[in-house]
Amino acid sequence: MFVRMLLATTALGTALGLAALPALAAGDSLVIGQILEPVGLDPTIRSEAAIAQVTLYNIYEALTRIDETGAAGPGLATNWTIAPDFKTVTLKLRPGVKFADGTAFDSADVKFAFERNAFEGSTNKRKAYFTNMASIATPDPLTVVITLKQANPQFLFNMGEEVSVIVAPETAATNADSPVGTGPYKVERWVKADSVVLGRNPNYREPGAVKLNRVTFKFINDGAAQVAALLAGDVEYFPFFGSPETLGVFERDPRFEVMAGSTEGETVLAINNKRGALGDRRVRQAISHALDRKEIIQGAQAGYGVPIGSHFAPHHKAYVDLTGVYPYDVARAKQLLSEAGYPEGLSLSLTLPPPPYARKSGEIIAAQLARAGITARIEQVEFAQWLEGTFTQKNYDLSIIAHVEPLDIGVYANPNYYFQYDNSAFRLWMEKADSAVNEADRNRYLQQAQRLLAYDAVNGFLFQLPKLSVVRKGLKGTWKNAPIFVNDLAAMSWN
């Protein structure tokens, strides 16, 4: 109701004068709106992107640093040499770096962090990066030599992701609640279900490079509340805004800038491939034919979003447009269900986590599936419940989520991942792609992998999640696009 009232009264507000609205105060602080609250603050042990949005490059740093173009540059490592076979990398570390608790950073910390990520009980979501390391040598405090089992041309990019941040042995066990990193900020206060406040790290090596003394991440899941917080001045930047149908309000308000960019977030109707009828490819194909992507994108995203037909970002060089493999066709969906032994249809659960794109898409998809004879029982859960019940325990039929990690098509090679997709042919294509030194070969293998996922209808592939941002004018250093999910606070400042 609040959003509809806002849209209806925009013209009146303009006529009365926007100067009457509360002013936003600029200075050395910033309040950022974020849809989801992290369950913990250690990105090396948990999978949710909300952790990286708060911590990556702010609290923790990695050997490399990924910029808005997706290029990997110096981070805790200032330079490196890579062997021609892409199996040995020698990195020189930045001198004079300290953790927030004052302890010195050196090569031993790199070795500890990566071995911790690789050990048998590790829950690092990109564990394969680290189990692929045959050895980690530390010839001196500022040199690390990493030898890989299999060539990895993407190594430098991988080392800039949140899963690769460097943690210290003295504090690693408590980082989830009390994070200690080498970045420009540390946690001052965490009010659960409300906000995380970051303040300057007094031991940061370049104090003059940090313009914002304090940054607050305010957690606001409800779309109308996001709009209200921005208009009232309670939030000054919403980098991943969740109410696209209201963007016109901010486009017409001279205090704000609206940006529409790209992310790596493949939004999918996740399917449990080992759950009853869903183990039959024909049933999954029927689900894919029942999905009208255009209707979903228009209804749930106000038209923002690019349709996808496999698990791959449309802006990538290796992308193949596979949206035509299963065109919207209700009659064909019913035929496939009948062939699979379900002429009267079937009933499935549809588990929806809190992000607005998931819940809005879920309502539309449930109606679409019903046209094909599939009853989708919607179950709304909080994100912690989704992580435990859906992601970890695999206790679901269908769900909706955006997978935001860059080039994460490789998760389908893990038969224990929550999709439970088990295909040796797919694993072979990914092995070839991951070790290909030649870019053209790598892209060809990735295209074959995309085609196989589409053919098997592993999931219902919906749309690429856009990066919709609302920012108070005068804030510099924000990203339009998101090759990784990060808010690089040290780059931000007010005019």
List keywords for this structure.
495 residues, 29% helix, Dipeptide-binding Protein, domain 1, disordered N terminus, alpha+beta, 4-stranded mixed sheet, 3 domains, Dipeptide-binding Protein, domain 3, D-Maltodextrin-Binding Protein, domain 2, 19 strands
In a few lines, what is going on in this structure?
This protein has 495 residues and is of the alpha+beta class. It contains 15 helices and 19 strands. Helix 9 packs antiparallel against helix 11, helix 10 runs antiparallel to helix 12 and helix 14 packs antiparallel against helix 15.
What does this entry look like structurally?
With 495 residues, this protein is α+β, with helices and mostly antiparallel strands. It folds into three domains: 2-40 and 179-261 and 467-494, Periplasmic binding protein-like II (D-Maltodextrin-Binding Protein, domain 2, 3-Layer(aba) Sandwich), CATH 3.40.190; 62-174, Dipeptide-binding Protein, domain 1 (Alpha-Beta Complex), CATH 3.90.76; 264-466, Dipeptide-binding Protein, Domain 3 (Dipeptide-binding Protein, domain 3, Roll), CATH 3.10.105. Helices cover 29% and strands 23% of the residues. The chain is built from 15 helices and 19 strands. The chain has helices spanning 2-8, 10-16, 49-55, 107-118, 127-131, 155-158, 223-232, 247-251, 281-290, 293-301, 330-339, 356-371, 383-392, 424-435, 439-456; strands spanning 29-34, 64-66, 72-74, 77-82, 88-93, 133-140, 143-148, 185-191, 195-200, 214-219, 237-238, 256-271, 306-307, 346-352, 374-380, 398-403, 460-472, 475-476, 493-494. The strands form five sheets. Strands 11, 12, 13, 14, 15, 16 and 17 form a seven-stranded mixed sheet that branches. The chain has a four-stranded mixed sheet with strand order 1-10-9-8, covered by helices on one side. Strands 4-5-7-6 form a four-stranded antiparallel sheet. Helix 10 (293-301) runs antiparallel to helix 12 (356-371) and helix 14 (424-435) runs antiparallel to helix 15. Residues 1-25 have low confidence and may be disordered.
